[in-house]
Inverse folding.
């Protein structure tokens, strides 16, 4: 896939410092008009992430950023629910058949020993102006005996008459010389209800043995049926991006494809937490770089595949 760099949005571009905020992690967007997008992201007040947003406009060919709004801070803050008391992140947006937009979130609780944490998946109704209208009090995907440590980073789409979710599933924490290390991969859930997932922990992506972790999947939302995801390998602990290719009838519906071939500059800007928006004329990728949001997020336009 040939992703062309459109531009980067930094914390100073949107006035984060006036709210004592930093980082722009896990950009999650939807189209609000021709070449215009609303982008949710997690920004940190101290050590606790909260959900903020900005609006931005690209030129008609989606080749460069022409306007970025100031930040809307504190759209959703941690601290009122026990399962996201230490942080809340955006993960994906989904539009119900009724037109109602749902923002799927990640609720974060720190563990007794750093960097151990526990996470669950939540959901919020978004109103027509992009504000959180209602945040569900309980997780839509909670922990279980099979997935006791974390469920995270959901992406949702229609699947026939029902719904399909890909999400990150935490299997264990392993003790290493450098401290606890999480073990996780991407799993799949199915349901007739986008808030109550009746089937979960289903196989999703077959990964090579040299790959350590698969993280934040993103549906392409087009006929290719590809997904994007972050991954770490035994040779590189930093996230990189790759695609998953659909295999019908296999135990694992997607197989791991080679990483993207990007220029070194673009590669550093496209490392972690992909999110794809399909418009009538383009596929737009919102993504963090190697710093995972400290310096903002970048935007790419998909050229030739």
């Amino acid at each position: 896939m040939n992703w062309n760099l459109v531009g980067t949005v930094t914390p100073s571009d949107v006035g984060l410092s006036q709210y004592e905020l930093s980082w722009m992690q896990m950009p999650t967007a939807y189209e609000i008009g021709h070449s215009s997008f609303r982008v949710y992201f997690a920004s940190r007040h101290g050590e606790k992430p909260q959900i903020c947003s900005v609006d931005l406009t690209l030129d008609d060919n989606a080749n460069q950023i022409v306007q970025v709004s100031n930040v809307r801070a504190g759209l959703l803050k941690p601290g009122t629910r026990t399962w996201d008391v230490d942080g809340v992140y955006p993960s994906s947006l989904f539009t119900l058949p009724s037109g109602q937009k749902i923002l799927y979130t990640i609720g974060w609780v720190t563990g007794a020993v750093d960097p151990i944490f526990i996470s669950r998946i939540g959901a919020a109704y978004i109103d027509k102006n992009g504000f959180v209208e209602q945040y569900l009090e309980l997780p839509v995907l909670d922990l279980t005996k099979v997935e006791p440590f974390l469920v995270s980073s959901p992406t949702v789409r229609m699947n026939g008459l029902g719904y399909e979710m890909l999400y990150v599933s935490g299997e264990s924490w392993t003790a290493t010389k450098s401290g606890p290390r999480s073990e996780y991969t991407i799993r799949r859930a199915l349901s007739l209800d986008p808030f109550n997932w009746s089937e979960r922990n289903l196989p999703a992506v077959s990964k090579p043995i040299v790959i350590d972790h698969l993280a934040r999947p993103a549906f392409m939302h087009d006929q290719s049926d590809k997904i994007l995801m972050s991954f770490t390998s035994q040779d590189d602990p930093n996230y990189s991006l790759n695609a998953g290719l659909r295999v019908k009838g296999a135990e694992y519906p997607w197989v791991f494809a080679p990483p993207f071939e990007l220029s070194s500059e673009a590669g550093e800007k496209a490392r972690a937490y992909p999110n794809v928006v399909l418009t009538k004329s383009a596929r737009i990728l919102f993504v963090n770089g190697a710093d995972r949001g400290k310096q903002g997020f970048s935007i790419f336009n998909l050229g030739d595949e």
About this structure: The helical segments are 11-14, 264-269. The CA atoms of residues 102 and 125 lie 5 Å apart.
